[in-house]
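To: structure desk
From: M.T.
Subject: fold request, one chain
Message: Could you run this one when you get a chance? Sequence is below, nothing fancy, just the single chain.
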Amino acid sequence: MEEKNSKIQSIIEYKEKLKDFRNRRAMVVAAVVILILAAALGIAGFIRYRTFSSYETISFDMEEDTLSSGYVKLGENVLRYGISGARLMDRDENELWSIAYSMDNPAAEVSGEAAAVYEQGGTSIRTFGADGQLGQVTTPYPIRKAKAAAQGVTAAILEDGGNTWLKYYSTDGTEIASFRTQIDSPGYPMDLSLSPDGMTLAVAYVYPEEGQMKSQVAFYNFGSAGKSQKDHLVKAVSYDDLLIPQLDYVDENTCVAYTEKGFLVFEGTTDPEETAKVEESQEILSICKNDSHVAMTVESSDVLQPYTLKLYSLSGKEIFQENFDFSYENMEMDENQILLWNRGEFAIYNFSGVEKFNGSVEEGQIQGIIGLGNRNYLGVLDQGLLYMKLR
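Reply: Done. Structure tokens follow.
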């Protein structure tokens, strides 16, 4: 009996020790998890609020002719275009491809992963992507503006004396659709944008009615939804006393229309609907977007900080607003940052409203600033290309 009681007591003691061990192990695991979470939050907070006071020059190419060329970000790379050709460079300054052409007064419009380089007032359009040229178009009338979709199809506004044309082209230059616009119906086209898949074209018109100027956003579908519709028109939305100078598709389903008061967001392809509308009471000085946000600067009431930077989601929700006194001339948005610059200085804000950098460039006058990721930037200067990293 004593032996049996001893065995029972041993089992009880073992179970208590096992329970104690499991409790201590759970406490250790919980402590480790808490430490990991705290470290992760600390790192995230450090990254979020870390600021930089200077930059390191990675390289400075003084032989690059920046005054007769344009530079835009195309995907993760930089597209250089000029009168004699275009080339794509990666963030390490390596040339990925180079294509020659002859074009007077070239301009470029980037839409997602595609760029349209076109001859303003001329008849030539080239479309480019990450792997090189996607398409080539020769138009019958002078080009005012052109935009491309991911596979290289192109839409353009053409002007022929008193007539204005909208034309849609395949990659080999074949005309897919064409229609003439008039000032009273449907109006004068201010801007246009193609969805990345090339299936939907949005056009912003301005037209007079009863002594007032009105605007209209028209959507043309080149798939099955627009086949039976005149000029492929599937939806038109009109606005009183509202100017819409610019349109941009951010994905196949979402189009952003910029107004002099703010912006509108449309969702859908066969029957687009307005899903967000933002209007500012103060004058808008600059506005830009990426595929998920819209940023704008407006006049503030603060004498010492006369500008207000605002960031919105595409649902119309305000993410932040910050007053500042940086006297900028240009503003662009990257994946997760807002870039402002003038001829001698540039500033960077993240999407939390933190000013990450504000400083001058000594190597030359700034023509443009392009973000290359991981604190790296390309400064397009009058003296050449400056590759730099914040520190």
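Reply (cont.): Residues 1-49 form one domain. Let me know if you need anything else for the meeting.
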